[in-house]
Amino acid sequence: MGKYDALTKGELLRLLEARDRREATRYGLVWETDGIEAEQALNGDYVALDLVPELCCGPPPWRNLIIEGDNFDALRALRPGFSGKVRCLATDPPYNTGNRDFLYNDRFIDKEDLWRHSKWLEFMFHRLTLARDLLSEDGAAFIHIDDNEVFNLGLLMNKVFGEGNFIANCIWQKMYSPKGTAMHFSDDHEYVLVYSVNRDIWRPNLLPRTDKQDKAYRNPDNDPRGVWKPGDFSARNYYGEGTYAITCPSGRVIPHPPTGNYWRYSKRRMEELNADNRIWWGKDGNNVPAIKRFLSDVKQGIVPQTLWLHEEVGHSQEGKKDIHGIFTFKSSQDVFSTPKPVRLLDRILQLGCSAKDIILDIFAGSGTTGHAVLKANAADGGSRRFVLVSNSEATAEEPDKNLCRDVCAVRLRRVALGYTKADGSEVAGLGGGFAYLRCRRVPVGDLLELDHPAVWTALQLRHLEGITPYDPAAPFQWSEEKDSALCYVPRFRKDDLKALRERVDAAGSVVIYSWQPGLLRQQLRRPLVTHEALPSGLSRPFGLRL
User: Fold this and answer.
1) Are 107 and 41 in contact (CB under 8 A)?
2) Which residues does residue 254 pair with via DSSP β-bridges, in sequence order?
3) For the chain, how big is the Rg over CA atoms in Å?
4) In this structure, are residues 55 and 405 in contact, taking their beta carbons and an 8 Å threshold?
5) DSSP character at residue 499
6) In terms of pTM, does the model score above 0.90?
7) Cβ(116)–Cβ(109) under 8 Å?
8) Are 227 and 294 in contact (CB under 8 A)?
9) SS3 at position 274
10) Element (H, E) at 539
11) DSSP labels for 363-417?
């Protein structure tokens, strides 16, 4: 019996009226779900990630991932191994312009679709919710958007991350000159919405100081503490001890602060600073005092601002130039219409992660995020890892289209290994590599028949930082990281027991997955060995019930 079956008609009406009152007073974003067709990508299947060795780059183990498939599936497949481990979500979702940029149920949504915004919100909600769960407690999301959905996205991010975790709405100047054909205003900027998982914990990294900023510091008096620059000794804020006469070293008397201002320091504090040679009176000792601000005392970085000018982070034309340098396109239509410049992603990585963090992009497009990660690692020797998810974007009109395989993966392979430009010049590789994976839905009832390579890949993604291909000639699969090991025994055979014991005894802690855990546990009892049963060892972390 259902929980409402025993209620009278009057009780049901009162219950509905109370619910309506609650809904009417609730503030937040609401979109139509009953009037739109259910999204076909939403499903409850298990998702296998099939390794495609011929599309991988560099030698294994691969620490970076490119995943081809719907990002709803990919995010669910990543959840067992990556929950709480991603430091930075940096992604550029479809802007829903109505110009064939947003696919819903394998159809592009156009401007005339009455449910255009609801479909976009429904699509984004499910993916952002899954992506949020992969972020660490000190992680943050950087989401690109333009005017078409910026207001809806802000409210949606409030819903997913919590209004209190809003950090900033950064303005990216995508154009370096006004568009003369604009009807009203030249559209010169886009946005990067920044939300944290926990505002009280997350802090952006400081931006590095530039040579231009440091050139403002000089040392005209040869102060042994190094270069400095003068700072204003007066301020507008009222200060009770900030009004007094000052006598310069030359004997000149300054009777009071500039009109409307106050001295920044009390007379006593001013005398202490002067005794410590921290006040500059000019070469003749006759100037209005200035506080000496030493470069050595300045924070070794700059607090980030919300205005990102193209001189600092690049513009759209630079993004196209980045791609043109790597690919040879037959026509201008083959180029992404709004590619992001690598320097824009450089800025996000500078702010949002350290040299050892995982960066996730669930709308990877041409692979700019991965490019920026490889570039950053090459620059500072870091070990950042990228996880990029991109759909093929194939449609009925273009069934063979595959942006993930033919653009994203090709770009990052060339960037990692090096390539020859159209003019014949050589570009050195940045190093690094990646595993190429494809999503495949598997009904939960078919997990007993899941092929061994897919099992081994899933187990590695859950336990290890790098993955290796399945070796069909080996009696068991084995991989070690630091002081722990992962083992997969596809079929238990006593003939293989001696070799397995030797590997286990030489390792630290070991997790062994098998389809016959009871039998294997009897033969291999060790204090640092954990036995896991299959297929429950796959379905349970995935949130499925057999």
Assistant:
1) no
2) 246
3) 30
4) yes
5) H
6) no
7) yes
8) yes
9) helix
10) helix 536-542
11) S-TTTHHHHHHHHHHHHH----EEEEEE-----SS-TT--HIIIIIHHHHHHHHH
- Counting as low any pLDDT under 70, the low residues of the chain are 1-3, 21-27, 329-337, 546
CA–CA separation, 507 and 105 (whole Å): 49
Residues in the chain: 546
- Best CA proximity match to 239, nearest among 222, 257, 221: 257
Write the DSSP assignment of 184-244 as a string of letters.
SS---EEEEEEEES-TTT--PPPBPPPHHHHTT-B-TT--TT--EEEEESEESS--TT---
Residue 497 CB neighbour total at 10 angstroms: 14
Distance, in Å, from the CA atom of 172 to the CA atom of 310, rounded to the nearest integer, reads 7
Which has the closest alpha carbon to 257: 248, 244, 240? Answer: 244
Cα–Cα dist 415/531, whole Å? 41
And the tokens for 245? 């006469």
The amino acid at 473: A
Rounded CA separation 376/349 (Å): 8
**CB hemisphere CA count around 59 (13 angstroms):** 0
Task: Provide CATH code, domain 39-202+312-437.
Answer: 3.40.50.150
Residue 441 tokens read as 């839905």
Report pLDDT digits (tens) over 400-409.
Answer: 899 999 999 9
**Position 308, amino acid:** W
